[in-house]
């Protein structure tokens, strides 16, 4: 009997995220949408039994993580209102299910980082006093003190060492090519720049050794991210990576003798374990990607999520003594590899000869038949498409579309130079990479060159707006801008301080670069639009405000366009009241969005 593979069936395949072991590394926490919404689960790493802990307490869209307390009986988690990302922090008792609100800041974003070594205080980041900075809360009495007071955001990793210092990744300049490791005394009395390879390198730490002496660090100073260990006493660094492929330090073993890193090689992510004394490495080779990789059970095991093009997300454990992998939680679906379409990894030349890597997914091809095609642009802009299971690509392929997902310039995974190519050039070279993705599709014998569309979310939505306006002559037949940006300055004006900093890093200030900002905004070129456009946006989006889609829609109406599902000069517009910057991890919201994409492109292409 042939299985019926519907949008609902594909989109309902659950996925896990935010794996985190407790202090003893015998329990694993993770978020999982098995019930169609995100819940918190705990897995006993010895018995491999797991259980659902929460019952609807978590937000539908997860934008901030959680922290284990030292007693392994509590976690802190965050909750916002309908996706607005104005998180409050809650203390949750795993055994009694009691939830206590620790912060109440409806106008601020708050992100828990770590519990103090004595288990009494919580380190968290917050915008409660303006810019994103670090704070410390006494969990029992809820007393809060501000730890850092920088005028630039302290986002990224922050950890509490046994030596009384809090280490954090921070950039005290506007140069996006730079970031460093800083430390501040837990009482705020002293601040120190700890680790900087150069003032034009991104240098970060990811873990602190058990004794507090060593930092697991990563630097892209050589042009490729390399992992190493930094001695906070001697100030010496020992590099472990050979610089051939991107490698990122992740975590020390509990005994401090090993370091696990992730190697990003041609859109696949593999764990490597380095012996810190000899420098020897042990590679775990398999297709696809592994992520959230951590040591477990006295350093005898690695625990991680794994995915491959025809393998949905699975939870796996690897025995480092026997070199055996065990899938603990396999894909929760009756679909098998034979039911999924394979993903090819290709490269195509762009306008200047640079090769752009991409994943290509096709339906079952019939000889002589021409298929509609889509270019799917990722968010970020510093994102990346991997050779992994991609629900969106599977859905479109099963509905008869060819789908190309390019890692345009500015993407991670291909070295420092490539990632920095779109600095001061948003909507320039990277947009041309999208145009040339279309040209690549046009040359495929099984693609109908008259039926090619473009879509994406966030930065991908920004790029979609631009493709249909500034680059309208490329000949796109339709486009869907999901949670996109239509004008850089209007987005900037409504952004949180840390998001403003991010835009200034990438594109300079508006005052000094007004011509550039205006030229790289779709609203400036809206009179050029020819193809029908779909706009989808959450009303509570704090990253790409809903006004970005509203003003584009309103301008279209001024130009004589009408809202409608067919005909020339028509657009389609959808707002979600209870959603922010997308809610892709909530399965019902995911299905709803995917159906909108499909309905639009089936009619328009």
TrEMBL record:
The keyword Cell wall biogenesis/degradation does not apply. GO terms for biological process: proteolysis. It comes from the Archaea. SUPFAM superfamilies: alpha/beta-Hydrolases, DPP6 N-terminal domain-like. Pfam families: PD40 (PF07676), Peptidase_S9 (PF00326). The keyword Acetylation applies. GO terms for molecular function: serine-type endopeptidase activity. Residues 389-604 form the Peptidase S9 prolyl oligopeptidase catalytic domain. Keywords: Acetylation, Hydrolase, Protease, Serine protease. PANTHER family: DIPEPTIDYL PEPTIDASE FAMILY MEMBER 6, SERINE PEPTIDASE S9 FAMILY MEMBER. This enzyme catalyzes the hydrolysis of the N-terminal peptide bond of an N-acetylated peptide to generate an N-acetylated amino acid and a peptide with a free N-terminus. It preferentially cleaves off Ac-Ala, Ac-Met and Ac-Ser. Also, involved in the degradation of oxidized and glycated proteins. This is Acyl-peptide hydrolase. The lineage of its organism: Archaea, Promethearchaeati, Candidatus Heimdallarchaeota, Candidatus Heimdallarchaeia (ex Rinke et al. 2021) (nom. nud.), Candidatus Heimdallarchaeales.
